[in-house]
Amino acid sequence: MENGSKKEIMFERMREKKKEVKIVRRIVLAITLFVLLIGGIGGLVAYKFVQSGIHAYDPDSEEIVEVEIPIGSGLSFISKKLEEEGIIKNARLFKYYAKFNNESSFQAGTYELSKSMTPDELIQSLKTGKVYREPVFTLAIPEGLTLEQIADVVEKKTNIQSKDFLAYINNPENVDKFIEKYPLLITEEIKNEAVKFPLEGYLFPATYAFYEESPSVQEIIDEMLQAMSTNVTPYFEYLEENEKSPHWLLTFASLLEKEATVQSDRETIASVFYNRLNVDMPLQTDPTVAYAHGEHLDRTLYKDLEIDDPYNTYKYKGLPPGPIAGPGKSSIDAVVDPSNTKYIYFLAGKDGVNHFAETYEEHLSNRDKYID
């Protein structure tokens, strides 16, 4: 009996121990699952926290904030400054993100920044000293387009109708506002009765970046006028010394833009026009005839030259009343720095090359050789 009792006690203890082990295992499993759950939630929260720190604070924000970055500012100071100004959500995350991408050399200056800018855009801005943002869309305006053609490009890229664009830019009240806003670039010359469209030739040809889906007509035109002002400003001293106006410069440059087939031609054609003006000879440039007719002419015929219009440089000496298209920087440069030649004549051959001559006889020879 004594031996049986001992065995029963031993078995009972073993059963109790097994129960304890099961309970311990369940507790350990529960604790493990709990830790994993908490860790998962914590990881998810941490992940979302980090993600929020490397994206734009507010992608839909259009508010622009001026931020001053003093000389000698380090990454810690800049990060804190951006957070204080409400540009980023977390200074520490921005700092770590910049360090992780090995970015730390930033330029001092005054920046116009927005909550809609991503950390990468902010970093690029601070590195280059210029505000850098990914545009919603770009508007490419090639050299040599008329206002009507520019309006068509705008219509294709935006929700602005071509007719509305032209109505806005040709509105007399708006023209007065343009003159007031850009007094050095735009003068009363554009209000000459002979000028067909006041702002013809004043919208600088370039690729423009826009950071909202639907910019207004005014915003688009302001961008182009400001760009033209920037490109003409370096020549104000030249114009003053030669008693010329920006209107004269853009008118002259527009003729080169429409006549030139290659870069080097601009300076040479400019010299031809200067030579003709110096001997009181009509400029006789075909693009002005097409502009007078208000349509593209595949080939200028003798009957086309008969149109009585101040833009027809076959009938009227000197420059036309205003630009006939939007000149690019190369054409503007060529007016100021033309080639030194004695050429009086030139023509575009079937080969697409301009051929120049000093005498009318040479010109006729070029015509026989390259056109007829």
Low-confidence stretches: 42-52
Q: Proportion of β residues?
A: 5-15%
H/E topology pattern: HEHHEHEHHHEHHHHHHEEH
Structural class: mainly alpha
Helix content: 40-55%
> How many strands appear in the DSSP assignment?
6
**Main sheet, how many strands, which sense, barrel?**
2 strands, antiparallel
Determine Rg (CA atoms, Å): 36 Å
Q: Note the gap between the termini.
A: 136 Å
How confident is the prediction overall: mean pLDDT?
85
Across the major sheet, the strand order is 1-2
Explain this structure to me?
The protein has 372 residues and is mainly alpha-helical. It has 14 helices and 6 strands. The protein has helices at 2-53, 75-84, 91-100, 119-128, 147-157, 162-170, 172-181, 217-232, 236-241, 246-259, 263-278, 286-293, 329-336, 360-370; strands at residues 65-69, 109-113, 137-140, 207-210, 345-348, 354-357. The strands form 3 sheets. It has a two-stranded antiparallel ribbon with strand order 1-2. The chain has a two-stranded antiparallel ribbon with strand order 3-4. A hairpin with a 5-residue loop joins strand 5 (345-348) and strand 6 (354-357). Helix 5 crosses helix 6 (162-170), helix 10 (246-259) crosses helix 11 and helix 11 (263-278) packs across helix 13 (329-336). The longest helix is centred in the first third of the chain and has 52 residues, at 2-53. The radius of gyration is 36 Å and the shape is elongated.
Describe the structure in brief.
The chain has 14 helices and 6 strands.
